[in-house]
Amino acid sequence: MPPAVTTPSPYVGRFAPTPSGYLHFGSLIAALASYLDARAAGGRWLLRMEDLDPPREMPGAQQAILQALEAYGFEWDGQMVRQSERLDIYNAMIERLWQDGHVYACDCSRKQLQPFAGLYPGFCRDAERGVENAAIRVRVPDRAYAFTDRVQGEFRQHLGREVGDFVIRRRDGLIAYQLAVVLDDAWQGVTDIVRGADLLDSTPRQLYLQALLGLPQPRYLHVPLIIQPDGHKLGKRYRSPPLQPAEATPLLLRALRALGQPTPNELHDALPGEILAWAIPRWDAEQIPHCRTLAEAQLR
């Protein structure tokens, strides 16, 4: 018999903001890259609210994020998904991993772990503690995980030596990002993940979870982060200015320049939707700067 012919899955992309603050220019670059990459491929673009940490959520941020996306011309497919509505799914997976011996309880304090600079030393790995008042860590193999990013090239990280067993549920019961994002991307059929380069070193942990759970591995594209004059990246932590509807046209053009895309004079007076419609058929991911950071001053 001739070999079976397989056809690639249709492109499914997503944008997944965290409502700990408003969208800013760095968020816009990530949203724009993921949107154009999906639409240029004739694919779907989903919206997911990663609202897993209620204590850090800013009141009104979810509505403000939706309003900003609409003001900047973005249109998503289907209903927005909230991670807070999927907690039972995450906890059921943790129970399965517990039964299979892939995770364990850890009651180490931050003070205990501070000298190890983020590399978990394995204090609780064989302690057989109960889950009450404890975090849940996943056992990682003593091996490296590598992938080829569409912009950043090959990235390799040895989980055992560089990360150690990592948390998938916090001591306070909140689900950790690494587990939720892997389960949700698989559930939503996401084929391509386009996001900021600050998440590049999270990817090997996600590759491991995908392999452990038998889930497909998406393609990855990590866009450069915008660095402010003081050296900090644009972000909610450093009170970067929120996106304003009145600035949609100039900021979309700046974001296109940051992504290496053309911005002809004819777009300077265009509406946001017109800019996106113009940019979709001209999108070229190979023109994105092959670097992890860009200076904000270069984009003005």
Automatic annotation (TrEMBL):
Annotated motif 'KMSKS' region: location in the chain? 233-237
Q: How is the cofactor bound?
A: Binds 1 zinc ion per subunit.
Positions that bind ATP: 236
The record, for Pfam families, names: tRNA-synt_1c
Motif 'HIGH' region positions after renumbering to this chain: 17-27
Going by the record, the broad EC class of this enzyme is ligase
Q: Which cofactor does it need?
A: Zn(2+)
Where the record annotates domain Glutamyl/glutaminyl-tRNA synthetase class Ib catalytic, the positions are 14-114, 131-238
Q: Which GO terms describe its biological process?
A: glutamyl-tRNA aminoacylation; tRNA modification
| Keyword Cell inner membrane set for record | no
Q: What is its EC number?
A: 6.1.1.-
Q: Keyword ATP-binding, does the record have it?
A: yes
Per UniProt, which keywords does this protein have? Answer: Aminoacyl-tRNA synthetase, ATP-binding, Ligase, Metal-binding, Nucleotide-binding, Protein biosynthesis, Zinc
Entry GO MF terms: ATP binding; glutamate-tRNA ligase activity; zinc ion binding
Q: Which residues bind Zn(2+)?
A: 106, 108, 120, 124
* Entry GO CC: cytosol
Where, by residue number, does L-glutamate bind?
Answer: 14-18, 50, 177, 195
Describe the family membership recorded for this protein in Swiss-Prot or TrEMBL.
Belongs to the class-I aminoacyl-tRNA synthetase family. GluQ subfamily.
Q: What does this protein do?
A: Catalyzes the tRNA-independent activation of glutamate in presence of ATP and the subsequent transfer of glutamate onto a tRNA(Asp). Glutamate is transferred on the 2-amino-5-(4,5-dihydroxy-2-cyclopenten-1-yl) moiety of the queuosine in the wobble position of the QUC anticodon.
Its recorded name reads Glutamyl-Q tRNA(Asp) synthetase
Q: Which organism is it from?
A: Stutzerimonas stutzeri
